């Protein structure tokens, strides 16, 4: 006779706290994802309140993603050494400090130091620790459900983030949004006693040189782009340092592996063609997303002069279609090849961006972008539903955490690169176009043309016509009208060129997906089996 569990049954007692812990982990992920959405739709408000520039805020957004990417591999190792629970708490506290600073910031410097840098480091500690804690605090079906819940929280945050951020910014303040983030983090930390630490049993050696090379590699490339965008010097040197550091990192990891010494990550992971194609697909998807999500909010807020809520509503077709398609594909695509779905994802993403480019100079309202955004969002949804599973499927269980860290780093680096490069290209195009139009003007005198060129060389900036009219107050009416006309014509072209970055990422992704189709589908590996089926010692 099978006894039913009584009220004192330990398994039943544990179910309640475990459900609460799963909910708190999902809340932490929600805050992590919604944070950047809030910044994207609040750009114009942040610029106005802090008296800063669009390019400065855009650079801070890209820097936050870059810091997260550059330190995420190190963050995983720190969690191994100090304890995953402690790393989880430190990550949440880093995010809370960054959000608190945003609530009271009076300058862009505060945003860069506390939100972008400290918050990015917090994310690099939080993400790997969260995965390990889910793995160690839940078993069997419960573990799968928690992974699904946390993934759903991320997807929901991506879908509603622009709307939520737009509503809060328009009717309250963008600062209130960050105060609410701190409140949610406080709630999550209040349940920290429910988290059982997960001990690390692997090697405790630290690859300091590998860690430094990874930061220099990813950091040098994206910082080089940001410095170029701001008109700084030594751009070439930063890019060269980044490229060389990445090349040396690859050599260094192989060398450490051959000597049996602890390495930042196992280079044998890259023996799998599936893993290499998967992380490159992840990076390309995030480049496309980052480029789109910096160009469109700027277009909506600076060209159409939308407030944050209007911008959020205009972006909703992209985020909501991405969420809906990801959910549908996750449930219905079990009998289809993941590589085929990934190919269609990149195809739809590319078609959506191609359709957006000619619409930008002609659309007089945000809803004119609906159809291209739905197509692009559907493509992103297909990618979100398949890329992680495709990439990690050939990796054996004991290396899944490390492989997931590499996958997350590739995605974060792609996001920061897309944000930085699309923004830099947009401002460079704006500067060149505005200067060329000013120099060819028959209305502006020579001295005025030179002044416009000098101002743009010092600080190229996307400005609304209303802002420009205020700046030109006191100038002769014919000069005002001519500069407004030039601004009206130059901005759409700059935004169109910026959209070429996600378009190029989508095209490369399509090419990449055909290579995926030529490889047999990935199958989960057992312990001791290498990424491509080769046996090696764990």
UniProtKB/TrEMBL annotation:
Annotated localization: Cell membrane
Domain Major facilitator superfamily (MFS) profile as annotated: residue spans: 21-453
Membrane topology: Multi-pass membrane protein
UniProt keyword Cell wall biogenesis/degradation present: no
Domain of life: Bacteria
Stored PROSITE patterns: MFS (PS50850)
Pfam families the UniProt entry points to: MFS_1 (PF07690)
Protein name (Swiss-Prot/TrEMBL): Transmembrane efflux protein
Alphabetical keyword list: Membrane, Transmembrane, Transmembrane helix, Transport
Transmembrane spans: 20-43, 55-75, 87-105, 111-134, 146-168, 174-196, 208-228, 234-254, 274-300, 306-329, 341-359, 365-385, 406-434, 493-511
Cited InterPro entries: MFS (IPR011701), MFS_dom (IPR020846), MFS_trans_sf (IPR036259)
Statement: the UniProt record of this protein carries the keyword Transmembrane helix: yes
């Amino acid at each position: 006779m099978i006894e039913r569990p009584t009220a004192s049954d330990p398994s039943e007692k544990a179910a309640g706290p475990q459900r609460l812990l799963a909910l708190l982990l999902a809340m932490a992920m929600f805050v992590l994802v919604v944070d950047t959405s809030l910044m994207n739709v609040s750009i114009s408000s942040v610029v106005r309140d802090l008296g800063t520039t669009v390019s400065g805020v855009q650079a801070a957004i890209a820097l936050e993603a870059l810091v997260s990417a550059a330190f995420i591999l190190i963050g995983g190792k720190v969690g191994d050494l100090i304890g995953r629970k402690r790393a989880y708490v430190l990550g949440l506290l880093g995010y809370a400090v960054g959000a608190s600073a945003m609530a009271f910031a009076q300058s862009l410097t505060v945003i860069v130091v506390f939100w972008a840098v400290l918050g990015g480091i917090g994310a690099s500690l939080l993400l790997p620790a969260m995965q390990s804690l889910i793995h160690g605090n839940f078993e069997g079906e419960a573990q799968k459900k928690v992974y699904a819940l946390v993934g759903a929280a991320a997807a929901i945050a991506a879908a509603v983030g622009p709307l939520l951020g737009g509503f809060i910014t328009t009717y309250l303040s963008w600062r209130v949004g960050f105060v609410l983030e701190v409140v949610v983090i406080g709630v999550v930390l209040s349940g920290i006693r429910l988290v059982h630490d997960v001990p690390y049993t692997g090697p405790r050696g630290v690859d300091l040189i590998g860690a430094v090379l990874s930061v220099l590699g990813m950091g040098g490339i994206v910082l080089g782009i940001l410095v170029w965008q701001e008109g700084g010097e030594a751009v070439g040197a930063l890019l060269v340092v980044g490229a060389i550091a990445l090349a040396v990192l690859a050599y260094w990891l192989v060398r450490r592996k051959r000597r049996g010494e602890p390495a930042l990550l196992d280079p044998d992971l890259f023996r799998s063609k599936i893993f290499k194609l998967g992380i490159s697909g992840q990076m390309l998807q995030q480049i496309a997303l980052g480029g789109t999500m910096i160009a469109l909010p700027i277009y909506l807020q600076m060209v159409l002069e939308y407030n944050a809520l209007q911008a959020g509503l205009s972006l909703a077709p992209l985020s909501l279609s991405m969420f809906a398609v990801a959910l549908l594909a996750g449930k219905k695509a079990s009998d289809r090849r993941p590589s085929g779905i990934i190919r269609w994802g990149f195809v739809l993403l590319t078609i959506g961006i191609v359709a957006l480019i000619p619409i930008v100079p002609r659309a007089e309202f945000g809803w004119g972008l609906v159809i291209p955004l739905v197509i692009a969002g559907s493509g992103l949804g297909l990618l979100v539903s398949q890329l992680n599973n495709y990439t990690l499927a050939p990796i054996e269980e004991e290396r899944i955490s490390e492989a997931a860290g590499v996958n997350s780093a590739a995605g974060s680096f792609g996001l920061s690169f897309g944000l930085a490069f699309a923004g830099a290209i947009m401002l460079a195009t704006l500067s060149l176009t505005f200067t060329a139009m000013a120099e060819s003007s028959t209305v502006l005198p020579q001295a005025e043309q030179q002044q416009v060129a000098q101002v743009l060389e010092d600080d190229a900036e996307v400005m609304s016509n209303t802002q420009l009219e205020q700046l030109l107050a006191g100038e002769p009416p014919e000069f005002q009208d001519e500069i407004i006309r030039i601004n009206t014509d130059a901005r759409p072209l700059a935004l169109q060129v910026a959209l070429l970055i996600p378009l190029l990422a989508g095209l490369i992704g399509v090419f990449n997906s055909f290579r995926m189709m030529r490889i047999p589908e990935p199958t989960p590996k057992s312990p001791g089996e290498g990424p491509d089926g080769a046996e090696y010692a764990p």
